[in-house]
Amino acid sequence: MTAMPSRLMPKLLVVEDDPGLQRQLRWAYDDYEVLCASTRAEAIDLLRAEEPGVVTLDLGLPPDPDGVSEGFAALEEILSLKPDTKIIVASGHGARESALRAIAGGAWDFYQKPVDIDTLGMIVKRAFHVHALEQENARLAERATDEWRGSGGPVLGQIITAAPEMLKIARTIERLADTGVSVMLLGASGTGKELLARGLHDASPRRDGAFIAINCAAIPETLLESELFGHEKGAFTGAVKTMPGKIELAEGGTLFLDEVGDIPLPLQVKLLRFLQERVIERIGGRQPIPVDTRIVCATHRNLDEMIAQETFREDLYYRLAEIVVRIPSLAERPGDAVLLARHFLKVHADAMNRPVKGFAADALAAIDAWNWPGNVRELENRVKRAVIMADGKYATAADLDLAAAGEEEGDILNLKAARDMADRAAIRRALARSQGNIAAAARLLGISRPTLYDLLKNHGIQI
Ligand SMILES: Nc1ncnc2c1ncn2[C@@H]1O[C@H](COP(=O)(O)OP(=O)(O)OP(=O)(O)O)[C@@H](O)[C@H]1O
Questions:
Q1: Using CA positions, which residue lies closest to atom 29 of ligand 1?
Q2: Which residues carry this modification: 4-aspartylphosphate (predicted)?
Q3: pTM to 2 decimals?
Q4: CA 45, CA 391: separation in Å to the nearest integer?
Q5: ipTM over 0.90
């Protein structure tokens, strides 16, 4: 299925169902080890086995060679298994829409069919270059942020994390803060989207202006327009005085639109107009009011799906989401649950003047094993509860209202990744149980202390 393998050459995966084109592409590239797949399943097998850095992906794959469904499914699957893969999507004539959708879905670039080998060659070369740079960057960043992992001190103002994934996000936010780009934060409820939005504001040149947050899902549709745009006295029954809207209040600062996916369509049009013209009109008002504010928004909804169903305007999406930042759930950030739990325990024990000093071993193991469907918010609530319920100095799993430890399962890339993940989880669990004592953790794991030190180093785990 592949050309002459060479250990040292970077791997390029060509996902293309036309055998003639496959052959052509395979011979066109001497500098890469070219792997070819004709279907999504083959592509995923090769991804798992070979971990190519760059993929060229034809969207029309069997069983839907004339459509794009398989191609988009492949794009999503590849990125969920290996998010750093650079995917270059092939789009047919006039398929600008697919190309844009692919980029919004995480593709790195696209090219127009019929294939021009030289042009594609350049895109592929650039993709490998960026991939190599990112890998190097990630390695350096890992090293540079090691100190944070030890202390778990706050980054970007108030964010407590030890997870490389979140540290990377904090760095991204810091970098974006200076630029004027619109940022969309995607993540489940309670993952810290608002905290990150505030961090972005505080790190931006607008920090002296107001940070105004509005949760679009929490306000009834009929009131949302007035909340956002304000109203003049007498504009409707009950409008007894003129009220500026949240957009206006955010003048000179940042407006955080939480759950932006819940804005009804007519209001989306009005918001889009504001983003284009940067002026608003209060309800019942005749005067256009210029407003200079930066919009950061967030949602836990699948906006791609909403766009496809025409319940969210695509033009608004592109205005709001110049940069999309995906926030991992708490379960996807190994080590963070325990770290945050310790932080919240101290905060709430101090605030409530309770004698609780830490967690019992069963509590730490349970925290580490729980899947945290409600993310950081759930964690904080459970810890608060434990601070109240704990009898002695140490809060137990029962105080957290957590049962004995269970196991969670995710989609994994390959056997090596699965083993690494299992190793890391076991080590973290042992460290949590032994309250960070290396000798005790090594004993729990049935290995020597030097072996544990080696493993900690290899897996980049700090205690
Ligand atoms: N990394 C973190 N460090 C410290 N506190 C955090 C962290 N992440 C979240 N929190 C806290 O958890 C709570 C929930 O976070 P936040 O409101 O930012 O989540 P969200 O993703 O905006 O949730 P929703 O979508 O439900 O509004 C807040 O009290 C926040 O301060």
A1: 377
A2: 58
A3: 0.59
A4: 53
A5: yes
